[in-house]
């Protein structure tokens, strides 16, 4: 390096304008140009400008990072999830569901369980908020079958068919269970793929479903047949189920409603009216709009 290159430039090195010597700072090191801290050994930085000190912004007080919290990313917001009331406990989840969370560390499982409790309680009242709770649980336990099932159910309640189908597929891969088949088939139907919905109607899947599960699958498959213009085939499927069941389970009202609606589509109006009355007889929770349909038909 030449002697010329070692010489401080005007206003930036040891000498200020006119070559006068500047006073040293309290540390004993020479001051930089324009009152800013100089680099190591009093030399300017590579760009010719004095380097900043490690203490903070140049020419000001050190920055207190605590005063500037970073905004949470979208993924972090999903993980955080909505707030959970203090009185909601993991024990509010039923015993069998809690057993499904045993592959998760206890502390984490408690948080996941509380989100699942909220998802379940809000499913019909506020499915969007329920879905946020399910997503928060999934962010913590993505490889848990119960969590993926809950996420699928909340997505299904929202009408997010593709998302629901993906979650149910994940749950099935993890658990090996076929209980999700009726909702998976219904997602295919909602996505305008009735032929895909029919693929769930197998003896292997049927053998793994209880009476209610089989009835629910029949309702969906019969609907897919109707979508394909096969009304008579739809009626035959529904008639093979226990339409006169004495059970008060929800599937009975839905099965009878599907049958009444299909009778109407087949032009058998009087029979349809009779079956809509049978729906009302077992639909105390108003799961269907059978009463409104009767009001229209009976005028």
From TrEMBL:
* Residue spans of biased composition, Basic and acidic residues class: 38-49, 62-77
Region annotation (Disordered) maps to 1-89
- Coiled-coil region: none
Q: State the source organism's domain of life.
A: Bacteria
User: What's this protein's name?
Assistant: Tetratricopeptide repeat protein
Recorded source organism is: Aeromicrobium piscarium
